[in-house]
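Dear Dr. H.,

I hope your travels went smoothly. While you were away I took the liberty of generating a structure for the chain from your last submission, since the lab meeting agenda had it listed for discussion. I wanted you to have the full record in hand beforehand rather than looking at slides cold. The sequence, exactly as received, is reproduced here:
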Amino acid sequence: MYETSAIANPALTALLPPSALEDPREAAFELTRAALVRSNQIPGVRHRLGWCGINEDVTPRDRPGALTARLNAMQGVYGLLPLDSCPGQKACFSLCYFPAPEEELLESFSIQAGIEALKPDFMDKIREFSRHPDLLPLFHIGFIEAHMTTGGTGPFLALAAKDRLGWVSDTGIIVNGPEGEIEAVAPGESDQDLPALEIAMPFFRSLAASFSYTLSSAPDRFYTQQRTAVLPSLLCHAALEHRLTLGYFTGEAAPEEFDWEEEKKIAWTQGNPLPGAYENEPWWRSDMPGAQNSLDKRAMGITDKPRFILLTGFLGTGKTTFLDNFIQTQTTNNSFVAVIQNEIGEKSLDARLLDETYAVTQMDEGCVCCSLAGNLRTAMSDILDRFQPDFVVLETTGLANPGNILREIDDLNDLMEFGSVTTLMDSLTGELTLERFEVARDQVRLADVILLNKCDLATADAVKRLERRINRLNPVAAIHKTCRGDIHPAVLYGINFRDPAKRPLFADLGNGLKATHRDDRIETRLMELSAPLDRSALLSAIEAGGEKILRVKGIAEFNDEQGPMVFQYAPGTCNISPLQARDTHERFLVIIGQDLDTSFNDAFLLTTKGTGQ
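The corresponding predicted structure, in token form, is as follows:
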């Protein structure tokens, strides 16, 4: 057991849990993670430090904490994997770089790496790259090391990488092409010639700047070293291995286990002029001057409220696709989006409801996604305090009446600026939906912005009829035609957005609305699955339900498929795809429909006959 006081610097005790402070090695792991997560929570800070965003890999491992990160300066994705094989008290990480398939840098990687990068599931794999150990040697570029000393000093942060990482193929490489076998690499030629240090530096630059920001202190020690790399015979370059080391609150030299025997090329300590080759690096400043939005808004006294968007629309209209496009656009504009999702049904596929006000289910590249399970005001206050978003989007279930939600939103004016009720309509099925369901008609009546989505699937006459029907329900809403929810947010919410004069009128209307999905006799049923389903029987049951079946979704296994599948059905569309996220042992289907008491049991129980249920 280590003494907690050994690393009791106030900046560290404020960041690390007491259990981590007891072990310098564990503290080094936790500090690296804390620096990355905290510097990415505030949009201005994230942008100023060079990050586009990070994603934590929650895959169960002996040591959790693997993550992927994007940088403004690079097209690909970095991966940081904790290692347990590091000697002494150091925390060691393998640093990988996964190039984008269209990135020119891909040509410098090996043939096998290029084959992997061009596979359709490559991006899905790298989000959970620690589950794919075959990728690591193909895309490894260096090591990140952190060290917390036991003498009251530290931490130290280092990058170790070779200037060139390449090898030759003694026998050549043959690959199968469209016209048969081709010689991709001739015997004795180079299969890879990678500028590893050059690729690793942008990540280390942003990581070191994140350390300075998180510790509220610039480094007081910096040195560089290089040595001739010990290389296997198959490597084609007499590479040099470089190490850059930064120290914070040092008061002494780096510990021996963190040092190389080679003479230091640069040895800088606080009080001396900055080394010329590195004098403009971002890690020398912790306050990031020059941009008001680069610091914590509260610390800067900025009181701008986030804009609130209530996103609604009947089942299967494309709300999630529209929302994905919205988040991507805001991310490129350095804006952070908080998404609150609320679902109907006993099981949630889109966001898992927990026994608390809300649960953060994802934080990744410009957004935080939460599931609402309690008081909206309490959840909103905590989200704004933790993440300081620029936009808050409440994505409702397709069966929610926005009038019932607006009553609660009226109590949030001190926390946010109300922006819009945005309603999506399915151009293909919208007429029938409005004819059948009062909830859908209320979603149109209360909208400021209406998107006629899936216009590519409907005829021009059908779109015109739907537009006329919408105008009778809501003559003042702005109507836009879209395909796959693709429309720039500035068109909807930019400076030309019409601030609707109808707001007081529709607020009163909302207070009077009582229609819910129950008024339309819409119900949900949960099927807990303990055995694989018969695919054809399930599809036949849905077809037999006719227009009464509005939505079927869940996680199931089928007799003719391997592993869990995500099942998604809406009228006119059905999609079955492998479950890409972290595996869950739950297997279930949620069926949403009308008058399920009379149509549900007989139809859907057929799907489980002969499967052991």
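Two observations you may find useful: The chain has three domains: 28-169+177-293, 304-512, 522-608. The mean pLDDT is 75.

With kind regards,
E. W.
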